[in-house]
């Protein structure tokens, strides 16, 4: 019983709560990380996301030596809205988060992104 309760609390603590007010103007995102840091993680879930899932999303990957894996959320002017640590998240949690934020996920890396999702999650462009 206690084990189930503890597991559910840990799951809630590691999940990111989306605050749409804070993320108003969200237009794009990038993942910043270092390959060495990915290899040091206990769980290989984040590395699997970086290697296999980033090509499916309209995300940019930025390699920064020594950086822990983070999702950086940006507005149209490339100003940082939020920074989310990915180290404690599972691959499915990261993909669910991106879906909540409005990022489109292709079935295969070579698939075309439908026109209506080409600039997702951007809503109203100032340009």
**What's the number of extended β-strand segments?**
4
Structural class: alpha+beta
- The CATH level-2 architecture is identified as 3-Layer(aba) Sandwich
- Using the alpha-carbon principal axes, give the shape: globular
**According to CATH, what is the class?**
Alpha Beta
Helix content range = 25-40%
For the largest beta sheet, what order do the strands appear in spatially? 2-1-3-4
**How many structural units, i.e. domains?**
1
**How is the main sheet built?**
4 strands, mixed
Strand content: 15-25%
The H-and-E topology, N to C, reads as HEHHEEEH
Helical element count?
4
Mean pLDDT over the full residue set: 82
Question: Could you say what the CATH topology is called?
Answer: Glutaredoxin
- The parts where pLDDT drops under 50 for at least 5 residues are 1-14
Distance between the termini: 55 Å
Q: What is the CATH H-level superfamily?
A: Sep15/SelM thioredoxin-like domain, active-site redox motif
Overall radius of gyration: 15 Å
Q: Mind explaining what this structure looks like?
A:
The chain is of the alpha+beta class and 127 residues long. The protein has a single domain, classed as Sep15/SelM thioredoxin-like domain, active-site redox motif (Glutaredoxin, 3-Layer(aba) Sandwich). The protein is built from 4 helices and 4 strands. The chain has helices at 2-14, 35-40, 45-53, 91-101; strands at 28-33, 60-63, 70-74, 80-85. It has a 4-stranded mixed β-sheet. A hairpin with a 5-residue loop joins strand 3 (70-74) and strand 4 (80-85). Helix 3 (45-53) crosses helix 4. The termini are far apart. Mean pLDDT is 82; it is low at 1-14. One of its GO terms (molecular function) is oxidoreductase activity.
